[in-house]
Write a structure and sequence with these properties.
Largest sheet: 5 strands, mixed
Structural class: alpha+beta
Number of helices: 19
Number of strands: 5
Strand content: 5-15%
Distance between the termini: 75 Å
Order of helices and strands: HHHHHHHHHHHHHHHHHEHEEHEE
Helix content: over 70%
Radius of gyration: 52 Å
Oligomer: single chain
């Protein structure tokens, strides 16, 4: 590749990467821009459109989830709040952002409490506080204690609630101005707790202290909420005029603030106190105003729902038109696809048919080849046995008899005794060879007697001890099986005499209705199966056992002897 081509690839990669980074930076700005929207529903809709349409990196998505949880709470949609909180917990855990885990657990607790699951909410807040403490976030830790305390008041667990509220206040004081608002909220809740538990003397100064600090903080929402709760406290202590001054002050502050829900709540409480104070006309006016606000809110909610339905209907109509316009082209496309599928099916069927024929022929050829190999092996083994029998007969009936006559003539003529001894030795060896080629005992007395004689003749003269056990062998088997088993035993004995260096041999023969089991074991030096090939007659053993459709297993390792397990079907 030329130098300028490499430079071009690097530039494309660089600008592509920067374009992606720039795109994510623009999305992040668009997400943060929603902080300027006062209308919670509009802000949520804008954020939700980004969530549905934009491809976000995990870090940018985490920022989006933070904003979505805040706005879901503002529009009082607690299902969405729970959904985005859970997504935020999972994503912040993946990114190992412990501080944000604490944040999302806090909002999850809020959604659970508003969904009438206070116990679950308390558990989430405790989890959030635990994570925040570990991540050194005292502000989030303190707000969780404040939320737990407020919820426990509603559950009438006042002793436990007081513990958490005092803990929140203590932590907020340590954190300074960053937790000032939380400190005031906890104090206001503590005053409410004292009111409900008849500790009014402790409650009164707290309300005053919170009121003063809230004005200094210029937190309208906190000022108004404290005014309303303080008014309720005064009203319960029969200080109706003082209570009315507090609610009037709260109304004056709430109206420009634009929080209609808080305004309606304050008006309901204010009208009730006016009626108890005997100021019925003012109470009626406050009641009418409350009802008017309720109607406006109801109409606004209905209008939002109507607008949403109209939007859904128009969207559905456009979608249906698009579906109709695409139907024809889709049908044509599907027709072409069907033709293509049909062609593919036909080709597949031809290939399958060809493959089936090929496999069938292959299987048939393999069976023929196997049968040919079996027949060839059988003819070889049978031919070997016939040749052995012929040679054994010629040795016994011809050479052995000639050697015997020769010996007798030499004795009669008083020839050298040493030559007679040698001739006698040669005669014995030829007779032994004749026996090895085809033992008379096997043909006349059967396998058990032949094996006993074979073991005795092969092992006793070499000083090797042996054991021979047989079970259920009353009736003789076919010549083919008996001869093969005898030859197998011969091959194993040859291995013992030539290679094993064994001092003991054990042989076991067992017959059942369907199987003949032959086990041959020696205590010799053994051998490595992985390196053994043909040196110990394994090929001959395998051939004879395959001839009988049997199975051979050899267990052997160096210096630990050898055991051969042979199973031959006889059914």
């Amino acid at each position: 590749m030329k130098k300028y081509q490499i430079i071009l690839i690097i530039l494309i990669f660089f600008f592509g990467l920067n374009a992606e980074v720039f795109s994510q930076a623009q999305l992040l700005k668009a997400i943060e821009k929603t902080d300027e929207l006062f209308d919670g529903q509009k802000a949520y809709n804008h954020l939700d459109s980004i969530r549905k349409t934009a491809k976000l990196t995990p870090k940018v998505k985490l920022v989006l989830l933070q904003k979505l949880t805040q706005r879901s709470l503002e529009i009082n949609d607690y299902k969405l709040l729970s959904k985005f909180s859970i997504q935020g917990i999972e994503l912040s855990r993946q990114l190992q952002k412990d501080s944000l885990q604490a944040y999302f657990y806090k909002f999850l607790g809020i959604s659970q409490v508003y969904s009438k699951k206070p116990e679950a909410g308390i558990l989430s807040w405790k989890k959030s506080a635990q994570i925040a403490k570990k991540a050194n976030q005292p502000y989030i830790e303190a707000t969780n204690y404040n939320n737990i305390g407020g919820t426990l008041i509603d559950l009438k667990q006042f002793k436990e609630a007081e513990k958490y509220l005092l803990l929140s206040i203590e932590l907020s004081e340590k954190n300074g101005k960053w937790s000032l608002r939380n400190k005031l909220l906890s104090n206001r809740l503590l005053a409410t707790l004292y009111t409900r538990t008849n500790r009014r003397k402790e409650a009164a100064p707290i309300y005053e202290k919170v009121q003063k600090a809230a004005y200094e903080l210029q937190d309208t929402n906190l000022i108004c909420s404290n005014l309303v709760f303080h008014a309720q406290f005064l009203y319960e202590n029969k200080k109706i005029n003082e209570a009315l001054k507090k609610t009037e002050e709260a109304l004056r502050l709430i109206e420009p603030y634009g929080d209609k829900n808080s305004l309606m709540t304050t008006l309901i409480f204010h009208s009730s106190m006016l009626a108890n104070a005997g100021r019925y006309k003012e109470a009626y006016e406050a009641h009418v105003r409350t009802f008017s606000l309720f109607q406006e809110s109801y109409k606004a909610e209905n209008q939002v729902q109507i607008n949403e339905l109209e939007t859904k209907f128009k969207t559905k109509e456009i979608e249906e038109q698009k579906k109709l316009s695409d139907a024809k082209s889709l049908a044509e496309k599907r027709q072409k696809e069907n033709y293509l599928i049909l062609l593919i099916l036909l080709v597949s069927l031809v290939l399958i048919a060809f493959l089936v024929l090929y496999l069938r022929n292959t299987k048939k050829n393999a069976a023929i080849k196997l049968r040919f190999q079996e027949e060839r092996l059988a003819s070889i083994i049978e031919g070997q046995e016939q040749e052995r029998a012929r040679i054994a007969k010629e040795l016994h009936d011809g050479i052995v008899q000639d050697l015997t006559l020769l010996k007798m003539e030499m004795v009669n003529q008083n020839l050298a005794p040493l030559a007679t001894i040698k001739l006698d030795k040669i005669t014995k060896e030829v007779r032994e060879l004749s026996y090895q080629m085809m033992p008379v005992t096997l043909r006349e007395l059967g396998l058990i007697s032949a094996l006993e004689e074979l073991l005795h003749r092969s092992l006793s003269k070499n000083g090797i001890a042996f054991e021979f056990e047989h079970f259920n062998y009353e009736e003789r088997l076919s010549d083919k099986i008996e001869v093969c088993v005898y030859r197998i035993c011969q091959e194993l004995l040859n291995n013992v005499l030539k290679h094993a260096g064994a001092s003991r041999v054990s042989v076991m023969l067992r017959k059942t209705d369907s199987q003949l089991t032959f086990i041959f074991e020696d205590n010799g030096k053994g051998f490595d199966l992985s390196s053994a090939k043909k040196g110990i007659g394994l090929e001959s053993l395998n051939s004879r056992i395959a001839f009988l459709n049997g199975n051979l297993e050899i267990d052997s390792s160096e210096q630990k002897g050898t055991t051969a397990f042979i199973r031959i079907p006889i059914a």
